[in-house]
Amino acid sequence: MLTAQRKQLILNRLASHGQIVAKDLADELGTSEDTIRRDLRELAQQGKLQRVHGGALPASAAVGDLQVREQVSSQEKQALGRFGAGLIQPGQVVILDGGTTALQVAHHLPADLRATVVTHSPNVAVALAAHRHIDILVLGGRLFRHSMVNVGASVIEAASRVRADLFFMGATGVHPKAGLSTGDAEEADVKRALHERAAETVVLASSEKLLSASAFVIAPMKAASLVVVPAGTPAKTVTALRSGGVKVQKAA
């Protein structure tokens, strides 16, 4: 089998099965594990998959910058944002991550809601500014322009002084084995710190993030109290996500 054919087979298998085990594929094709690992390495360099120990997982399609992500699954994100906004109760302290789905949560909050929102996203803070009854606490740090969020030690230090009821965590990869992940190490550090300061963590995940993985792990799936997925998510995907030990609910 030619290299190009083998690589296409790998991508097709990832699409249909959700993972590749290098040894099993090498045995099936009658080639060496080194050959399969080289194929995986080259495909990973092209951003077409995420290598893991022993094989590969689908790469998240949600790793573009904020402007790119605004065009992806926009209707799903509106529904997820509406659902997330409905989880917030008056008087709560809520940590709202950065990203396009978090912005939808901000846009769907009731105008008369009285709550405190903590965020490290300037965009989220601006979106909330019209809500006169919401106290907004912005965690400052170095602006990571790719995602338009503040990152760094100062964000983590400020977060250590917060106790929140809910944290709406953004993740580019949501996988039962690979966990909750994102494409930047500093972002992962900040998300992990914010998760540790909340009684409950909710992940609002559009379809391109499901059963995929990114380079930097935030936490295992079971760290989330709830993963909310689009209404049209296939039953087999929901079952696979639940195998990670987390409650999964579809957005209405």
UniProtKB/TrEMBL annotation:
PANTHER family: GLYCEROL-3-PHOSPHATE REGULON REPRESSOR, HTH-TYPE TRANSCRIPTIONAL REGULATOR SRLR-RELATED
Keyword Transcription regulation: yes
Domain HTH deoR-type: 3-58
GO molecular function, one term: DNA binding
Gene3D superfamilies for this protein: 3.40.50.1360, Winged helix-like DNA-binding domain superfamily/Winged helix DNA-binding domain
Statement: the UniProt record of this protein carries the keyword Transcription regulation: yes
Keywords: DNA-binding, Repressor, Transcription, Transcription regulation
Name of the featured protein: DeoR/GlpR transcriptional regulator
SUPFAM superfamilies according to UniProt: NagB/RpiA/CoA transferase-like, Winged helix' DNA-binding domain
InterPro entries named among the record's database cross-references: Carb_Metab_HTH_regulators, DeoR-like_C, DeoR_HTH, NagB/RpiA_transferase-like, Tscrpt_reg_HTH_DeoR_CS, WH-like_DNA-bd_sf, WH_DNA-bd_sf
